[in-house]
Amino acid sequence: MAMAAGTTGGAEEGTPTLIAGMQIRALAAYCACTMTCAYNGVVYAFPMLSVKLKAQGLSSDNVVIAGLMLQLGYGLVSYPFARFYMNKRLLGKYSPAQMDRIASIISAAMTLVASGIMIGAAAHASENDVPLSMPLFCIGFALWSAGLGVSFYQSMTIANYIFARDKALRRKAVAFNAFALGVGSLLWVVLFYYAMSKISLVNTLVTMTVMYAAAALFRIKYMVRGRFVTMPPEPSDPAPVRAPATAGVVVHDASTVVEMTSISGSVGANGASIAEDEPEKLSTVLPPPRPEEIPKVVATPRPRRIDYWSSPVVWFTSVSGFFAYGIGSVALNSLGNTAALFVPEDEVDATTFSLSITFLVWIIMSRIVTTLIYAHLNWPHVNTMWNLLLFVGMVVYTAYPTLPGAYLMACLVGFGFGGIISTLAVISTSSFPGGIADNSMNLSIAFTITSFGPFLMGLIKNAIFAKATESGLNTENFSNLSTYIFFVSTTFFSTACSMALGYHLKKAFKLEKQTMRAAALHASPPASVSEVDPDPETPMEENLLAVSGQRV
């Protein structure tokens, strides 16, 4: 039997259904999300940029602080972004697509203004042969990373929206975006070393700005939500009713007109016969469906503040992420200084590049592993595995601070750090309270807390280092006892929290499976779950509860 594809009002009969167009738009939106994450990999390529900053007069401590400001701004902007996306006035006034374009424009404005500040400061320092202005660069880095952060959280929110109807697909999509972030960071390191190392800091910043502007235009155009169909759409009219199996036709609802081109036998209860291969129109009128035949809409209630405060998953994710993300960021931002401890000055660039490549390659490897795990096995202890690797890497390096130890640290810490970032995004969007409409807030809760980790861990590490120097202790290569105890204790505590997180995630996954089995047993044909696809042309406030309905 051949049936003509459904058409929309005013469309010519026989043309493809809107599903094809929607899938293309969804693919374009997801590609824009992935491209955004890849560009944002520049945040993790900071060690290569730090070499240029030191050459322009910034001290090692100031370079580390600038890198930590970069991480802090990237994470702190998540909460204002979530409040913007959930503002009641805006939700009732603008459609989802309009909200996305506004967010993209705000992100681009912040990043471009910050780039202008940094370019101006670098040009002034170069022309007058003076060191870079630390306050200006800190402000520029914070604003620049905040703009990049808005685009990152927006891309995660839209990726979750595209795959709203299937939690397993959402986990894969978020993990793949994190993988794109790692690939982008590696590409940026290669670009810095082979292309931008030969140009000045001003020209480097200008090149980065031009590349960002091109990416921002693509994002403003395509990274928007629409009527994406990731599963067959549910009809807006009463529930579909299956025709008798002998008829060979699926009759949709009381007003559906079906075109049939190859039907043998009799159709309908009146015994009317239709000639084979003779296209005709058959209008069917069916009685209203019985109540038990109407699919149920599964809606996730909006979480209250107490739901977050009382959730062990939220607590253990945030606390573990605070320490793990902080220690990993300190290790990443210190690679340039680490290289300077072991090699002559003329070899610092090459050694920094080598350490950065090693670190970032293992970050990518961990993100590949994380993506594969969430694609094929929803294992609750993924975060624990990455924290254990981070713990071992820091113990090895702080106990045996040598150049080979630094490379081993780059491998182990990079492997654990990349996985932690990936799992943090996946857990917050799939296991925190609420549904799809709350993903932006869930991301902000996780990343706002963890964003303080790099800044505070860096300040504590510098304070311990300075105190050890004043006391005459052996501070070379982080070998003093205070620093060793600090890194070991913080990574151990992070690992312990991640183990508790795995326990609670395992309980939550068991509950999900029980819910799915119960839904399958009590589902009435022809459909067990009805999804409500939000309309991008209506105010977003009307779509929030609709988007919250999801398959567990």
Automatic annotation (TrEMBL):
Any one Gene Ontology molecular-function term assigned to this protein's record: transmembrane transporter activity
Plastid as UniProt keyword: no
Claim: GTP-binding is one of the keywords in the record: no
Keywords assigned by UniProt, alphabetized: Membrane, Transmembrane, Transmembrane helix
Transmembrane segments: 27-51, 63-82, 102-126, 132-153, 174-195, 201-218, 313-332, 352-375, 382-400, 406-429, 441-464, 484-505
Record's protein name: Uncharacterized protein
